[in-house]
Here is the input.
Amino acid sequence: PNVIVISVDTLRADHLGMYGHPHDTSPNLDALAEESLVFDDMLTEIPLTGPAFCSMMTSLYPRIIGATRNGLRLPDDVETVAQIFQNANYETLCVTSNWTLKRKLSGLDRGFDVYEDDFHKKRWGLIKSERNGDEVTRIALKLLENRDKEKPLFAWFHFSDPHAPYKNRRLHRVSKKSDYPGDKGAKIKVRYDSEIHYTDAQIQKVLNALPTNETYIIFLADHGESIHEHDYLGHGRRIYQTGLRVPMLINGPDIEPGRTDLPARGVDIAPTLLGFAGLPVPEAMRGRDLLNDPPLADRARVMETYGGAV
Here is the structure.
């Protein structure tokens, strides 16, 4: 089967309709959720993009691999799930959009036949490059159109638009400041909702282009965002639910739609992806295949964060 990962940077679960958000931020993802298994209790390992994805793609904790901050590279001897798919004769494609996922900084390009990280637009116009969602979509559609259809596909498409600086996109305004009375983060949340609605529209274009037969899709975020809750704006330094809890759904040919409160975590992603394809899970991996080897309800989960430069 084909295995597709679609991820969104800095996306809180509680700002999506499928998790009860009252504003129409995610109509396309909500429609997909109706046909999918939605996880109500998914936590990232660490609320930072680079370390979170290093953990997801290796099923190892940040403290084990040393990738504890953005810019700290995955060790060369650590195997990624993309390498396993590549070795199983999959075509492997990735389009990313956040500076911390650049190949030189993350090491996450290994195992990908195409790892598209050629973007240079500066966040805030000054530092830390990123790519807009429409460009992610344009490149993803081109890669999907030209893929080797004789091979099964493993692909990862990452959107970064809900990350600060938050933009109020003119055609994607779904809330207003008065919708958040008494909330000192109200102005930001209006822009944040707008970014999510924009990203939702871009994701739908990619979903429309995916192969329709024998395709598994996992949608999730790397971490959330604190928008003045707990006197904190941003992510990375603190491990409140606003930064840890992320959306996740699984869609596929034999996935029964519904919801689950299984205590999922970032290290479960790689084993679950391998499970879709019936590929063996290496003994070194610390996570669980959420469908074929689900964790116990009383599972202990330890999250991480680190001081110093991010």
About this structure: Residues 186-209 form the longest helix (24 residues). The chain has a mean pLDDT of 95. The chain is about 25% helix and 15% strand.
